[in-house]
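Q: Structure for this?
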Amino acid sequence: MSRATLPFDTITIERSSDVPVHRQIYDRLRSYILRGLLPPGSRLPSTRDFAATLSVARNSVIAAYEQLLIEGYIESKVGFGTVVSQALGRSQSKLQSTLPQRSPELSQRGAMIGNQPHFGRSPRKLNFHPGYPETEAFPFLVWSRLLARRARSRSEDILTYFSFCGHPDLREAIAQYVAVARGVVCTPQQVIVVTGAQAGLDLLARTLLDPGDTAWLEEPGYIGARAALLAGGARIAPLRVSEDGWSLSDPELPAPRLIYITPSCQWPTGVIMRLEERLQLLELASHYNAWIVEDDYDGEYRFRGKPVSAMQGLDSSDRVIYVGTFGKTLFSSLRIGYLIVPTALVEPIDRALAITGQFAPLIMQGALADFIREGHFATHLKRMRSLYAVRQAYLLQLCTTQLSEWMNVPANESGIQLLGRFRRPFDDRCVAQEAALHGIDAQPLSANFNSDEPQHGLLLGYARLAEREIQAAVVGLGEVFHTFDAQHTMSRPRRGKMVPQH
Amino acid sequence: MSRATLPFDTITIERSSDVPVHRQIYDRLRSYILRGLLPPGSRLPSTRDFAATLSVARNSVIAAYEQLLIEGYIESKVGFGTVVSQALGRSQSKLQSTLPQRSPELSQRGAMIGNQPHFGRSPRKLNFHPGYPETEAFPFLVWSRLLARRARSRSEDILTYFSFCGHPDLREAIAQYVAVARGVVCTPQQVIVVTGAQAGLDLLARTLLDPGDTAWLEEPGYIGARAALLAGGARIAPLRVSEDGWSLSDPELPAPRLIYITPSCQWPTGVIMRLEERLQLLELASHYNAWIVEDDYDGEYRFRGKPVSAMQGLDSSDRVIYVGTFGKTLFSSLRIGYLIVPTALVEPIDRALAITGQFAPLIMQGALADFIREGHFATHLKRMRSLYAVRQAYLLQLCTTQLSEWMNVPANESGIQLLGRFRRPFDDRCVAQEAALHGIDAQPLSANFNSDEPQHGLLLGYARLAEREIQAAVVGLGEVFHTFDAQHTMSRPRRGKMVPQH
């Protein structure tokens, strides 16, 4: 038994600290033991002596010793008192000295997932980032009341999961909604509630693809889908989209296992898939026996006529999976989206969700079901559709009068963003960087190109901007373009690289 | 131009239906077109004639035609009226006849993920399933008030994501809590909020492992961790655990990239890892440069003394990732868990979460932060600790007096379940099946074995059961055991197979 080498009276207790005295003593002794200052076998003072030395209550020392005893740092030796555990010897010293202190690294897959391009957002900028709805007009009082009611209910159905596919009320409400609003044909059992559309895409990539499988992704196409497909190990083949539609007859396209499309309002071009293209795509998918993932990310917003029905309703071979979200109709931090899957997928997806944890809290699901069933959702959607139509018209008008020299901004019958294509060979990442300096967040079009030489322009999400903000943003963009004109500079972007936005 | 072959007067409108008349007309015509009953070029009646035939308002027919026009099913021919679109020709007929109607299948990975063993729960049974806290005592009124307050606030921080790692208030509250309660050393920035511990395990397996990498999993060990590791493509090597501790010196263990452990209360044995084992494990992990994932799934519940501090606090080489959850301290459908990660992982995990969508709604996060900061969490935890201690003592007493012939049920200083090991060679899956017939849900011990010949017993999660329910469940189990005694039957289980529980 070695004697403690540490003068215990050098330990100081901070009486003004929030940390309880016994915890301070425990922390100090534990640290000394781990750092080797109190080697195994070192004898600790008696609780009485130590309390007197520190001028603290003896109970505080007893509590600290008890915890150290429970955790194995010290032991009690009959007839000798309390000593640092002998068992610690080897490991303790080794840990302090000879071990390499390098940290492990991410896996290759992890690094790939963690390095996908992303667009940071800034709370103080005029936010043109597409995909964010207006929240000013959202009935938060109603929402708060519905949430509180479900939380108070204490009923078994919001406390325990019997299915990972979602709350029965919400699955039913969604099934009814998509049937009427989107022409989707399904039973409530085919509805899978997930923590947002992105989670749904991630889940589908993992359960429908094996690493190395080919997926068709629209080119240009949605960054979030690309990231989910890559994270699932897919090889991506570009299904090219232009104003003329989808290049479904492209002979270079390899046989796919999955086809990701945004037929109701193509991201980012805004093109709507014609019925004959839809039928041809179903035919192709059937030929290859491939899945179709139909991302209907903002199919609800169509300003003239009714929204175009979803492809899912045309499918008679159980290969179309419909992806919907409330993030663009209510608010993005709600984190509730849904998949409509063929019946055969329900059971395996339920099990997969038990592993991936991509399911939303039941209280929120219950409240959302009430929000839909009590008519608040339909009312809100109708109001937003009118509001966004006005905002789009205003933005279009300002772009035409003030920015048409630099950007061609066609109207969009649907969606909550406009695409402005540059008329001059500016690099849109540089323009976006310059715009950020003017307090404007906008997404460069080129970021949506995965395979081809990118086109340049800006995606202008106008849903969240009031008219005065739209005006300020357009004026700001005009200044940015003037700067670029003045510089006469132009650098061709390197393919596939992202310039950091912040 | 072919004439329509369809007698339009056979279309019937259900006036009592909830579906609007124009939608019924649209649905009927669309279906006829897609089924080839109205071939391309077929002429439709004028809206006036059709309205008269159906005895409906002409506006209803106009609305139906407009939608069919928008969606491309019909077109307007000058001087001829409305016809089924010619463009549909080829695809439409093909879709109806020659195409194979087989559906695609899950990927191999998807099938593996979807086939992991699971335990269904039944709302009407005495629920011994481990891991579920008592919810009767949860202050739902407080919770409902906090939720409503955050929802009403409309503040930017609960409406938009600036970081995917979680709400700043909650990250701070968690960092403070784990420092005091669990000896975890971290800044709020190291806290990553996820949709439950399971989501955290899934995320870690995907970002820290590549397919084929070796992970050590305790044997017996937690099913959910096994599923997450397998879903991430890991090869699993068994780190054997017995009452004597962890077999850290097992020469057959291959070099790991990740080590999953439950040191505070080993799942399912309840063994607590000794300090010297913890130090040895850190040494081993350092030697292999492996990650340690420390799942502290119910480290909060220790009935004698204070909870044992987490391993994370012993780590000086940034390799321990701590996994915590509120699912066992508050209620499971809350779906909020957290990871404490080394600083270098924060940024890549933030990006990964943007892709996987495993993040909790901000309103819930904000309300939970308030719940912790206003002291409700500490109060609730203290009450539950007392309640569970009483329940464990009661269950132990009844098991000793009534079931000791068949099961050895030692006390557990920590956790919210007891492990009963069979004294006779019963197959625990058969016992669990029989118990289910007696209205009792319990998990067979053997399900937690991944590599070795399983031991048999039952995991008894007592947290949710009131004393009268504990009594009824023990009586029920006694009857089950009597049945097995009477049958004198015993079938050795096949390794690794699960008998369906329902």
